[in-house]
Amino acid sequence: MQGFALNDIFKIGIGPSSSHTMGPMHAAQHFLSGLDVCHATEPYRIEVTLHGSLAATGEGHGTPGAITAGLMGHHYDTVTLVDIELAWEIAMNTGRLQSLAGHSIQFKPTDALHRDTQPLPNHPNGMTFKAWRSNEFIAEAQYFSVGGGMVEDQEGRALATGDLVDDETPFPYASMDQLVAWCDSEDLSIAQLQAKNEHLCLRSESRDAHAITLWQVMSECIDRGLSTEGELPGGLRVKRRAAALWRRLLSNSQGGKAPANQAQRAMVYAMAVNEENAAGGRLVTAPTNGAAGIVPAVLRAHLDEHRLNSAGINRHVSTFLRTATAIGSLFKMNASISGAEVGCQGEVGAAASMAAAGLTAVMGGSPRQIENAAEIAVEHCLGLTCDPIGGLVQVPCIERNGMGAVKAIAASDLALAGDGQFMISLDQVIDTVRETGKDMDSRYKETARGGLAIHGLKIPVTAVEC
Ligand code: SF4
Known about the structure:
Layout: H1 6-9, E1 12-14, H2 18-33, E2 44-52, H3 53-57, H4 63-71, H5 81-94, E3 96-98, E4 104-106, H6 109-112, E5 113-116, E6 125-133, E7 136-147, E8 150-153, H7 176-186, H8 190-197, H9 209-227, H10 242-251, H11 262-278, E9 282-284, H12 294-305, H13 310-334, H14 339-342, H15 348-362, H16 367-379, H17 397-417, H18 426-439, H19 452-455
Parallel strand pairs: 2-4, 2-5
Antiparallel strand pairs: 1-9, 2-6, 3-4, 6-7, 7-8
Helix pairs in contact: 2-4, 4-5, 8-13, 9-11, 10-11, 11-12, 11-17, 12-15, 12-17, 13-15, 15-16, 15-17, 16-17, 16-18
Bound molecules: iron/sulfur cluster.
């Protein structure tokens, strides 16, 4: 393993769930694209079985609609809620889908979408796809939605989403120590090394198009969250608060300065993103949907502080997101970014760590100070359980993103005030996330059978994942 690409860790998609909405859509699209539909004269008949957590929470997280849209050829980075709803309506009413490429597919969800609450051995989020043509069975494949919208096949190979190619990465790393060693020997920053691993050479004046596109989507998501009021869907009657909190901050601003302080703004920005996620809005996984608010919030609050021209914004966005990508890769490689595997320490903890690293990088921190910031941020999320009320990514998730953003800023401050010498390494903390996750009772790992999920409200729920 040589690390992940920017577009693996940060994916443009839709809420509410990267593993239950985006991953299944990608799997369905991948299965269909592997069939020889171009030469088909008759429609394919498709059946899908959702296993484990996907079967238990599929309805609430939009998994059936996501699968249907994926079979039509939709991809999560461009699909809209309207596309998904339309695909679902057509499949339910006619049992026949016309793919975006013009091919005919027989798929009636009531007959062809099965649920098996027993998880497959590989991962709690499994899917089995089967295809027939003229009653002849022609294909079967299993996929696993392993967190953050990433999908693996039954051999454990990730479906390609990023730009890293095995054996062609100039600076492969599997630990923070290796990453820092490359930075030292090659005289590169973490962000530059990450870019070179994607075969990009980013000079100070270059425009990092991938990072800028991600930032535009992140930024638009913050803006929508700050200007939208009302109740979130799902039945918990949770009210959106970001818009009112933002107005409160604005009313305290003086002399055209960005209102309030960096941490206050970051908290509201993070909540704005996660309210949008809960409402099924467009966002960027960072590294998951449930923890999507922290990285954009800390980046936006930083940009507010520094009146940069567009080249400066470009440079800071690129440095921030590429540094965060390297840290997210380490979590993905050596622990997990799936709440079902390690609890919320792998989602909000990883996101806070990534944001702290990104902020320290744009503030001019050394690779060791960046490591220090990343380890402080996640160290104080160790043991954080996943126990969302009602099986919805709302309570405590929305506030938890706000707290994660504040923690990331504080961690970066502490690291920048230090000299890059510290006792616990990031590698040690990530190992601790993995081991703590293994020891964590399953009630606290997105089964909604423990913690706030049962003590916060007396609602019977099954399982959830973001
Ligand atoms: S509590 Fe669970 S569902 Fe909520 S953000 Fe954390 S990992 Fe995601």
